[in-house]
Design goal:
Strand order of the largest sheet of chain B: 6-7-8-3-9-10
Strand order of the largest sheet of chain A: 1-3-2
Strand content of chain A: under 5%
Distance between the termini of chain B: 31 Å
Structural class of chain A: mainly alpha
Oligomer: heterodimer
Number of domains of chain B: 2
Shape of chain B: globular
Order of helices and strands of chain A: HHHHEEEHHHHH
Largest sheet of chain A: 3 strands, antiparallel
Radius of gyration of chain B: 20 Å
Helix content of chain A: 55-70%
CATH superfamily of the largest domain in chain B: P-loop containing nucleotide triphosphate hydrolases
Mean pLDDT of chain A: 83
CATH topology of the largest domain in chain B: Rossmann fold
Distance between the termini of chain A: 48 Å
Largest interface: A-B, 28 and 34 residues
Shape of chain A: flat
Number of helices of chain B: 11
Number of helices of chain A: 9
Number of domains of chain A: 2
Low-confidence stretches of chain A: 1-17
Largest sheet of chain B: 6 strands, mixed
Helix content of chain B: 25-40%
Chain lengths: 271, 274
């Protein structure tokens, strides 16, 4: 299992590529996929519906533990993965809390450019609640995606009677993301080794050129990919081998316990 | 002893773009159990030829026959069942999330019952010594391991003919040895093997017959020994003479080696010396 640590692109700290990698080495990747999807969705919905910061924070922390311990994502890497939704949420919540007025209003305000930028206690409270709620949802989703590979997720959709074409398209698109990122990575490395990123101007030029070529090179690779599939009898159907995974009683029990726990936190918080 | 013919092409012509024929008037007959090396410079048409044999490409002009029956558009899938193609870049073949799903892709496409698919996957994994890799995601394997998976892929489909596109290209010496072992085993099982390669020494060592491509045409077709002795052909098609053959000829001149012994590998040399 140690060989996974030597993955050659481990210097990337962002990107879909790493999520796939973690999913492939998660401790719970053998759990039934539909069960994992259902659990994440239920937890996410509960977090949204109960709409209590205490519940949300519980979800963030517990899902964080699941991700770091069960999905074996190093803590720093997990924080890295959280950075992007965090940034979006932070900006969004600030805007929600903020009001602009010509009159002095609110509990906290600052005067800039002829206007008052203010917020109220209530506003801050709402923004914070929203922030935690959204981060809870994100954490629950990460628990799913960091433990279940994309083709397994597609398999769940298939079982849910999503049209076959959509599911197969999802699978192919997902694989092509990897082709694209791989090609882009290699082109960038080659450019870097020829000082293509030595300063801002050179970087812009290199970036543009790579972007332009990326499409062509990936298209060619995709064609070869298609040939390889056709040569093995691909006829338009992608009947992926699906492992039969049983839901174990203790897993269902653990989920029930967790949901009761969340309900308990809610009751305590609203008393 | 003339084994039965298994694949035949007649005047096969193909162009990727109008006016640029990649294959020209290619007529060749391949027999069951043959070990054929396909050689020629890059761009000479080797891969395109393979893609035709496997039913991925359809000829612009000309015909392909499998087992005596002509292959038409609707028969292409049938051709793919009998002819397997191991691509040069194993990465281009990896499609699934686990090695066993990957190896199952071919048999699943053959619409075999689930139990049969399971059996074939197990057999193929055992054949290529990949039992411990069942659950591993193919994308994260080393080059040599990926290559073994890509071969297991094809073995699981149980084709009669297997095409290898420059299989030794990315392999380290150990990988190269393992590959030759696999080729040996497959050959003993009666499979017809075509290997495209730049490695003349490998071709001399392993193949019985050589097809030399040059600008889309078949410049030479015959036993490996006789082809490699034709200096003119080698010159025109930019091929080197195999080292062991050059050594043999030099020793023969000095009368140090038995005439007609033609050692194919270094290990056979001591036994042939006088």
């Amino acid at each position: 299992m140690g060989v996974f640590g030597l993955h050659k692109n481990s210097h990337h700290s962002h990107g879909v590529r790493n999520i796939d990698f973690y999913a492939s080495q998660s401790k719970i990747r053998h759990w039934n996929d539909s069960f994992k999807v259902a659990s994440s969705c239920i937890i996410l919905l509960l977090c949204m519906i109960l709409d209590q910061p205490e519940v949300s924070i519980t979800v963030i922390v517990t899902m964080g533990i699941v991700n770091i311990w069960a999905n074996r994502v190093p803590a720093l890497a997990y924080i890295g993965l959280l950075k992007v939704p965090l940034a979006f949420l932070a900006i969004g919540c600030i805007i929600i809390a903020l009001g602009i007025s010509k009159q002095p209003m609110g509990d906290y305000r600052v005067f800039l450019c002829g206007h008052y930028f203010y917020t109220t206690n209530e506003g801050v409270g709402r923004a914070a609640a929203l922030f935690f709620k959204a981060m809870g949802a994100v954490s629950a989703m990460y628990a799913l995606t960091l433990s279940t590979s994309a083709s397994e997720l597609a398999g769940v959709l298939k079982k849910a009677h999503v049209p076959k074409a959509v599911v197969e398209l999802m699978n192919m698109m997902y694989r092509f993301i990897f082709i694209l990122t791989e090609v882009q990575g290699r082109m960038k490395t080659a450019a870097v080794s020829r000082l293509g990123y030595v300063d801002f101007k050179a970087s812009c030029y290199s970036f543009g050129k790579i972007g332009g070529n990326l499409f062509l090179v990936s298209l060619k690779k995709a064609n070869t990919y298609y040939d390889a599939m056709v040569s093995r009898g691909y006829e338009g159907d992608l009947p992926f081998w699906e492992e039969e995974k049983q839901v174990k009683l203790w897993q269902a029990g653990a989920l029930m316990l967790y949901l009761c726990g969340l309900a308990g936190v809610y009751i305590l918080a609203t008393r | 002893m003339e084994a039965e013919e298994i694949i035949r092409t007649e005047h096969l012509t193909y162009e990727y773009q109008a006016g640029c024929p990649v294959l020209q008037d290619l007529s060749v007959s391949i027999h069951k159990g043959e070990k054929i090396a396909v050689m020629g410079s890059n761009g000479a048409g080797k891969s395109t030829f393979f893609l035709h044999l496997n039913g991925v490409l359809q000829a612009g002009k000309g015909k392909i026959f499998y087992g005596g029956a002509e292959i038409r558009r609707k028969d292409l899938n049938g051709l793919r069942k009998h002819v397997g193609f191991v691509f040069q870049d194993a990465d281009n073949q990896m499609i699934a999330s686990s090695v066993q799903a990957e190896v199952a892709f071919g048999p699943m496409n053959l619409k075999l019952p689930k139990e049969e698919v399971k059996k074939r996957v197990s057999e193929a994994l055992e054949y290529m010594d990949l039992q411990g890799y069942r659950e591993r995601p193919p994308h994260y394997l080393s080059g040599g391991e990926k290559k073994r998976v890509s071969i297991a892929d094809i073995i699981a489909m149980k084709p009669e003919v297997i095409l290898f596109d420059e299989p030794t290209a990315a392999l380290d010496p150990l990988g190269g040895e393992l590959l030759e072992d696999v080729l040996e085993r497959l050959s003993k099982e009666g499979k017809t093997l075509l290997v495209s390669t730049h490695d003349v020494d490998f071709a001399y060592r392993w193949a019985e017959r050589a097809l030399i491509f040059h600008h889309g045409k078949l410049a030479a077709d015959g036993g490996t020994l006789e082809i490699f002795q034709q200096e003119q052909v080698l010159r025109e098609t930019h091929l080197k003479k195999p080292e062991m053959l050059t050594v043999y000829e030099a020793l023969l001149q000095k009368g140090r080696i038995r005439k007609g012994s033609y050692p194919r590998r270094a290990g056979e040399l001591p036994g042939a010396l006088i």
